[in-house]
């Protein structure tokens, strides 16, 4: 049996490594965005990493729900159609699970796909949704407000590969992601304009929970 103190220490070490992994990935993506002429502030960095992060997170979530449905003998209806799955355009894989560079879009082909195919498809969810409370409607709203600012498909390819290295399939991974993303939103406020309106300080969050008791 593993001593409790040793187990807790190991768990803390794993969490710290996960945090470092997320931090390094976001830093590397910011470095890629720094080279893009259309991205000049923390607001731009957060916005551009956000749409990639959202699609990667959604892909992991759908994969998880698909496996859960399979375990109980049910078919899962994907929100994103197969032609626009993350694994189709952002991170195609070979049968052994390694990255398939031969079939990965890059350069002008990648920019054209994102601007003229992917974004219009995602924006169209708002019109196709059955109501404003559905996730489809929310996806349409999100991508109706965001514009891809990557001009180089090679930079976008680098950013996508960095984003694909992240995993959001455990509660601990999701917890670390929420903390880091919260920090990025806080930095938006420090960068000026209205970025800070999306950041809610932790003490206020705790007070709201105590009062509302959700």
Q: What do we call the CATH topology? A: Ferritin
What share of the residues does DSSP label as strand, in percent? under 5%
Number of helices: 9
Q: Determine the mean pLDDT.
A: 82
CATH-scheme architecture: Up-down Bundle
User: Going by CATH, what is the homologous superfamily?
Assistant: N6 adenine-specific DNA methyltransferase, N-terminal domain
Encode the helix/strand succession as letters: HHHHHHHHH
Number of domains in the coordinates? 1
| Net shape | globular
Assign the structural class, choosing from mainly alpha, mainly beta, alpha/beta, alpha+beta, or little secondary structure. Answer: mainly alpha
Radius of gyration: 19 Å
In CATH's first tier, which class applies? Mainly Alpha
Write a brief structural summary.
The protein has 214 residues and is mainly alpha-helical. The chain is built from 9 helices and no strands.
How would you summarize the topology of this molecule?
Elements: H1 4-34, H2 42-71, H3 86-89, H4 107-123, H5 125-128, H6 135-145, H7 153-164, H8 171-191, H9 202-212
Provide the descriptors you would attach to this structure in a database record:
9 helices; Ferritin; 214 residues
